[in-house]
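Thread amino acids onto this structure.
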């Protein structure tokens, strides 16, 4: 059966376990969270060494995995087998693997004292295949890329808050915004960043200084500060940020900055054209966190509708130039600065 990450997590918390799990898809955060839960919580600490076996697809085979599954636990009534990078196993890589029937047979009749978790990262089984249909019928399947598991950009702030609360910490709104704007929609990176903060904190309240100090986001030069300077039309600050971005293009490539600029001004256009000036309505209309909506509310009074339209036109042209559609001699930093002057200096 297919279950969402939320359903699986809830079942695990309630002590409801199945014999076989297939975890697949590109959102590896969910796969890691489920497999780590099993590795940490499923077997009694004193019996883990005897009854947990971890296989890696590159270094193992489906026959070795199945032999582990068929063997019985020691001094316990259950055994755990985790197959990491399972996509490297022959039976998952080759449609007509000679070992396919061995796996199909085990899926139908698993050892009742064993629980096996197949972790297929950044890939998925063909849903038309006999193997997938067998998992679907007899096991729990997680498709991390499914719509039901998707965490959208506007949901990231709430997701961060929930993750922090689950660890009995509290996080300020500005810290949430700084993380979401600079790390983006990457749950693994956000989770790793939060772990860095947890291990360095001496209290339970996470603020913006913690994010800057422990995650490595520059205090003055990041997307959080860029949006603030755009809202306030602070030309000097924007120029400094663009120059910093140009000197750190691995972290701040021009295409990412262009996308950020376009997103900000397009959302501003939407609420400006609809004459929306209520914080909650702004939040729901452009799907942003209420804390972020505050900056859009401020920006409404600093930009006219005509200005926003001209800015978007300029950004679109910059995007075309960056993609080589238009050829000019200026370098990328000059293009950004030129765009900046067009944004802030009225002709």
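Threaded sequence (347 positions):
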């Amino acid at each position: 059966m297919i279950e969402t990450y939320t359903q699986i997590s809830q079942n695990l918390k309630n002590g409801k376990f199945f014999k076989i799990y297939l975890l697949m898809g590109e959102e590896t955060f969910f796969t890691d969270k489920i497999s780590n839960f099993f590795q940490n919580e499923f077997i009694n600490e004193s019996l883990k060494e005897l009854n947990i076996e971890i296989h890696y697809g590159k270094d193992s085979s489906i026959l070795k995995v199945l032999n582990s599954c068929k063997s019985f636990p020691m001094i316990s009534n259950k055994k755990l087998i985790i197959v990491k990078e399972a996509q490297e196993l022959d039976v998952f890589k080759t449609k007509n693997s000679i070992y396919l029937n061995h796996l199909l047979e085990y899926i139908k009749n698993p050892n009742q004292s064993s629980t096996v978790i197949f972790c297929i990262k950044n890939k998925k089984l063909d849903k038309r295949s006999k193997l997938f249909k067998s998992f679907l019928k007899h096991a729990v399947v997680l498709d991390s890329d499914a719509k039901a598991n998707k965490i959208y950009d506007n949901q990231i702030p709430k997701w961060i808050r929930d993750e922090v609360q689950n660890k009995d910490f509290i996080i300020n709104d500005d810290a949430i915004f700084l993380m979401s704007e600079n790390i983006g929609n990457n749950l693994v990176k956000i989770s790793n960043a939060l772990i860095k903060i947890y291990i360095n904190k001496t209290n339970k309240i996470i603020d913006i200084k913690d994010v800057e100090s422990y995650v490595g986001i520059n205090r003055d030069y990041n997307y959080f500060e860029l949006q603030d300077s755009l809202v306030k039309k602070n030309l000097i600050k924007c120029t400094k940020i663009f120059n910093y971005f140009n000197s750190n293009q691995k972290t701040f490539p021009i295409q990412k900055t262009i996308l950020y600029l376009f997103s900000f001004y397009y959302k501003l256009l939407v609420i400006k054209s609809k004459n929306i000036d209520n914080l909650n309505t702004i939040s729901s209309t452009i799907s942003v966190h209420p804390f972020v909506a505050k900056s859009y509310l401020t920006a409404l009074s600093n930009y006219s509708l005509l200005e926003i339209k001209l800015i978007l036109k300029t950004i679109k042209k910059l995007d075309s130039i960056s993609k080589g559609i238009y050829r000019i001699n200026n370098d990328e930093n000059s293009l950004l600065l030129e765009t900046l002057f067009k944004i802030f200096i009225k002709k």
